[in-house]
Amino acid sequence: MQTAIAPSLDIQQIRQDFPILDQQINNRPLVYFDNAATTQKPRAVIDALTNYYEGYNANIHRGIHHLAEQATAAFEASRRAMQSFLNAAHWQEIIFTYGTTDGINLVAQAYGRRFLNAGDEIIISGMEHHSNIVPWQMLCEERGCVLKVIPVDEQGDLILDEYDALLSEKTKLVSVVHASNSLGTVNPVKTIIEKAHAAGAVVLIDGAQSSSHLPVDVQALDADFFVCSAHKFYGPTGMGVLYGKTALLEAMSPYRGGGEMIREVTFEKTTYNDIPYKFEAGTPNIADVVAVKAAVDYIGQLSKEAIAAHELELLHYATEQLSEIDGLRIIGQAKEKIGVVSFVMDGIHHQDMGVILDQQGIAVRTGHHCTMPLMHRFGIAGTTRASFAVYNTKDEIDRLVQGIRRVQKMML
User: Fold this and answer.
1) Residue 316 and residue 178: Cα distance in Å, rounded?
2) Which is the catalytic residue, given 140, 145, 228, 370?
3) What is the pLDDT of residues 211-230, one digit of tens each?
4) For this structure, is 228 an active site residue?
5) End-to-end Cα spacing for the chain
6) Four-point Cα dihedral 350, 406, 411, 25, nearest 10
7) What is the pTM of this model?
8) Please, are residues 225 and 244 in contact by the beta-carbon 8 Å criterion?
9) CA of 411: how far to CAs of 237, 345, 346, 404, 407, in Å?
């Protein structure tokens, strides 16, 4: 496992930025370990939402009055912020979506329908979220493509030798997760991309988890597409980003039709707008797009490197403490992980574990985590998952360990 670097963050001060944490659940202080599902929001993000609705709520781009121009400027400032956040070469390469799922579907439909044909092969991995499985299955059914899967070993790492064997001249697209939401595994996506490009394929990276925990540089990765969701990195729900290389986005057909994505409309023919607007039909989720800049700025103030170091220290500590519990087995012990620990307990169903921990004020996620094929790979129905964020502490991990031991005493 990676070596933690001592973080220089005042975690107690950071916790004060998140008002939701200052509450009790079942008469116990809240411990929030469901960050892989969604992170909590700092006051700066909440204020940005309020300020938009109270101060300059208006539709964007086409209005010439003051509120519309103010809203448009704030909306586009978030696009520039996301360009910097991902280190995209051009602001036009940032497409606003409704989340990671929407971004993957956009690529599957706008790129896949146009460029993939019968017999072409798509490669995904055995640890993908359903959002990075189902759209490709749908495309394969429609276009006659073939879906292939990189297997996962016992530790929770991808078997790259098998990936090499899957690649061929028939491979047209590779779509893999950067960091697993179920195992925490950080995949070697730069290597995966290089191998795919050598075979002539384009690559989509699912960054739903990595965008929260790891520095991301789409140019250094040479990713063709990268998708993420704001609510995973302290931003609002219902807002995400698709990054795509300019040449690919310009070659793709629009995904949805309507306002904003057009240049000129007649009853005989419609011409489409330039990127990024070609893919942003209709009135967007303006308030949440505006607020994402506050999330990006907040992360920038703390620094991704410091956040990653703190979460890695939590991961090491949690892994050590949980490993000492008799009958507990951690699922996923890859060499490189983000702050996710999933486990099963002998004789205790994961749902029972989650319910009883909640009674103690500890919020974890239970189930298959939208990775049913991965659960089948390990021969289990689901896990209990604790996932960490910048505001979590070792004291909270101690409470989790105490809570699990209490569940054991009650159930066994």
Assistant:
1) 20
2) 370
3) 999 999 999 999 999 999 99
4) no
5) 32
6) -60
7) 0.96
8) yes
9) 36, 11, 10, 10, 6
